[in-house]
Amino acid sequence: LFGPEGGVRFARGEWFSAATEHLPAVAKQALQQSELSAPAQTCVSFSQPNVPDLPAIGWNTGQHVQDANFGALESLQAMVVQTLAAWYAEQHRKPCAWLANDPHHTLALGIVKPDDSTN
């Protein structure tokens, strides 16, 4: 899954700080980093009850919420959702978004894409 060739590619993720940024703009930056024009259909996440703007980004953040599977992971959320998004992208050959809390920012978010460079 994680290697120099094949598998998946992680685009640079984005951090969102609610005090200084607008979430839809940060989500748009994540799409640009991934070279996507529209949000990925799948997003692996943990619930974010303190982020009221979440529906405004257009990501499907409610379908693959991991709270019931992992409980309260706090600063480990990003590692878990990135791993699950990478697995999804590799298995389904489709981009997968991820979203989690971050110890230094309100959220961290990004997109994993299948690596088609070796096909």
Question: Keywords for this structure?
Answer:
26% helix; globular; 6 strands; Peroxisomal Thiolase, Chain A, domain 1; 6-stranded mixed β-sheet; 119 residues; single chain; alpha/beta
CATH superfamily: Thiolase/Chalcone synthase
CATH domain topology: Peroxisomal Thiolase, Chain A, domain 1
* Low-confidence blocks of residues: none
Q: Which CATH architecture would you pick?
A: 3-Layer(aba) Sandwich
The radius of gyration is 13 Å
Please provide the ordered H/E string of secondary-structure elements.
Answer: EEHEEHHEE
Task: Specify the biggest β-sheet.
Answer: 6 strands, mixed
Give a structural overview.
- The radius of gyration is 13 Å and the shape is globular.
- The chain starts with 7 loop residues before the first strand and ends in a 5-residue tail after the last strand.
- It has a single domain (11-114), classed as Thiolase/Chalcone synthase (Peroxisomal Thiolase, Chain A, domain 1, 3-Layer(aba) Sandwich), CATH 3.40.47.
- It is 26% helix and 21% strand.
- It has 119 residues and is of the alpha/beta class.
- Strands 1, 2, 3, 4, 5 and 6 form a 6-stranded mixed sheet that branches.
Condensed summary:
With 119 residues, this protein is α/β, with parallel strands linked by helices.
Which secondary structure elements does this structure contain, and how are they paired or packed?
Elements: E1 8-10, E2 14-16, H1 23-33, E3 42-45, E4 64-65, H2 67-70, H3 77-92, E5 96-100, E6 107-114
Parallel strand pairs: 3-4, 3-5
Antiparallel strand pairs: 1-6, 2-6, 5-6
